[in-house]
Amino acid sequence: MTAAADRIAATIAAEIACKPAQVGAAVALLDEGATVPFIARYRKEATGGLDDTQLRTLEERLAYLRELEARRATVLDSIREQGKLTDELEGKIAAAVTKAELEDLYLPYRPKRRTKAEIARERGLGPLAEAILADRSVVPAELAAGFVTDQVPDAKAALEGARDILAETFAENADLVGSLRGYLKGKAVLRARVVEGKAEEGAKFSDYFDHAEPWAKAPSHRALAMLRGRNEGFLSVDIEVDAEDASPVKPVERMIANAYRIAIPGKAADTWLLEVARWAWRVKISLHLSLDLMTELRERAEEEAIHVFARNLKDLLLAAPAGSRATMGLDPGIRTGVKVAVVDGTGKVLDTATVYPFQPRNDVQGAMAELAHLIRKHRVELVAIGNGTASRETDRLASEIIAAMPAPKPIKVVVSEAGASVYSASAAASAELPGLDVSLRGAVSIARRLQDPLAELVKIDPKSIGVGQYQHDVDQGRLARALDAVVEDAVNAVGVDLNTASASLLARVSGLGASLAEAIIAHRDAEGPFRTRKQLLKVARLGPRTFELCAGFLRIPNGEEPLDASAVHPEAYGLAQRIVAACGRDLRALMGDSRALRSLDPAVFVDDRFGLPTVKDILAELEKPGRDPRPEFKTAAFKEGVEEIKDLVPGMRLEGTVTNVANFGAFVDIGVHQDGLVHVSQLADRFVKDPREVVKAGDVVHVRVIEVDVKRKRIALSMRSDDGTRPQRERQQPSASRPAPRHSPSPKPPAQSEGALAAALREAMKRK
């Protein structure tokens, strides 16, 4: 490894709590084209067992640190070409651990346009600046008189030139700037004010019309809210330091003075130099550092917002599937009617219809008759109802139909329809459902996302699913990369049925992409279902390297090779066969036999190629072949008679589903078309720092209404006990005796233009 590579490995190792050799091995695999899911699952011996979370952090930091190293090399070459590179400077550059530190060191040597300081030097004023700085016994005005020339008309002009030279010197002192940056990070205040004349128009930012808080502690959601207000022209946002300090010399000015041994109070030269220090701070250094801190604030806020989005998305993608059961999807609508789609256990569309039980047609009887007919005809077991407009009305209609049917009755479940309209108009939907009207595709998506949320949600741009925190205010490229990583990890954690998966799902499998996914489906359509994983090698453009990366994540239930239905990689089939032989059993008979498999000593099967981690993984997979890491399917029951926000009363106890988790609390769907907010302070009878310690998206929870603002569509909820003795934070599940359970596995789109997160944020701020 090179010195730069060693430095990168050591840095990342310290950050993810492992050894540099583990980082080096993971980096080598990534550079060879291996994916994070593949490395995490099938190369544990090489990396020492780094998990997908560590590997994702490693991958992200690797990109940053390689950019840093490339910039370091450029800086060194530039300074070396100028003939100004000293051993001391080279050592400082080599020790810089951030881009900001590196740029501070490079600043004096960076090629730049002519500055006032450079002009002053050209006019011969460099010696004047040096003399005043070197000898405090001089009187600057008297000394400056000796530098009057044709280009420097008087002593005042000479001193201004000397000031420009020294101010630039102060501003380019990397050690000093670094110290000042550190001081600001600890002491700076983020100040927001309303722009004059914009109070009424920017009322949604009223919480920040006169707001101040420590820069270091500003949480992501408030920082992004203020920055949005500034970008929209309603707020001014500034970095302030020592604004309340009334001392004659501010701490930042004293830091500059101390760096150059300027006495306070001192002689005439010291007094003049102190004014230069003040001027340098005001005109040069503070502007530069304020921009740095504002940039860092945005990056920090974006990183946290992206992290929140990614965690919520992961929870939704890995939500419990209802399973392979015939399902009716209902996409509610009033004037345009309720769109209906029935799909079989594999998601294949069996029937569609549109019924008009609401105004203006009010054909209730016709709608009920048609829905009952479709349920009986296709033996529907689940009814998935979209949670948008007319959802509760459609739910009541379905309840009446189901109540009148003989057992076994289908179960009705309310699901999020966020992104369904995006999918309906997408190229993926057109390819999957070419003969189906766009208006009916949403009903198909609603039905399928109840059967298998992961398989359906991968078809939708993650940003359209609606679980982000100020998602439109963050770096969209970085957000997309983070969300793509989450989707990739989720898909590969669950595994994919090679013979039923859509192109969208296959495209997320390790090593594949859109092109190869289409090629696999084309081969499947032409040649029939895959009987073995090895047949993948017959797919056009799918070579041995791609096969290595993808095969372990693709499943073939009931194929010719039993191991093809498991997560055991084909490269380890020989090892698996050795384990089976040791039991003296047929493979199919052994799979699932916990007692026999747990009686084996994993260490016996370790060899030169496969270590203990792989052996243990194979034993676990044989014990539960093709196990699904997702939880058991559970549902929530909305309270009858509570259908609109005006039906809510403080003190009312309800059951609901967590739709979104932000840093300031959790949003819960309680069936009134507007999510309620459980502020972080109301999540439990104890202090909660991170809401995800208590809840995650998809959890079924019991809440108590504590405040309702019908006009502003705000609902404040609590999961705390009434008296602090009986907690309400358990993830309770409805009992078997409850009628017609309902479910909302993913969040609703905001009901108002500003978005549910933005609306609830202001409410949350008032409660802090």
CATH architectural name of the domain at 116-307:
Orthogonal Bundle
CATH fold naming of the domain at 116-307: Tex N-terminal region-like
Order of the strands making up the biggest sheet: 6-5-4-7-8
Instruction: Assign an overall shape.
Output: globular
Structure summary, number of beta strands: 15
Mind summarizing the main beta sheet? 5 strands, mixed
Level of helix content? Answer: 40-55%
* Proportion in β-strands: 5-15%
User: Could you state the CATH homologous superfamily of the domain at 116-307?
Assistant: Tex N-terminal region-like
**Rg from Cα:** 33 Å
Tell me the distance between the termini.
51 Å
* Uncertain parts: 724-768
Overview of the molecule:
With 768 residues, the protein is an alpha/beta fold. Among the domains are: 3-109, Arc Repressor Mutant, subunit A, CATH 1.10.10; 116-307, Tex N-terminal region-like (Orthogonal Bundle); 333-419 and 432-451, YqgF/RNase H-like domain (Nucleotidyltransferase, domain 5, 2-Layer Sandwich); 645-767, Beta Barrel (OB fold (Dihydrolipoamide Acetyltransferase, E2P)), CATH 2.40.50.140. It contains 30 helices and 15 strands. A hairpin with a 2-residue loop joins strand 11 (653-662) and strand 12. Helix 2 packs across helix 5 and helix 8 (116-122) packs across helix 11 (155-171). The longest helix has 50 residues, at 268-317.
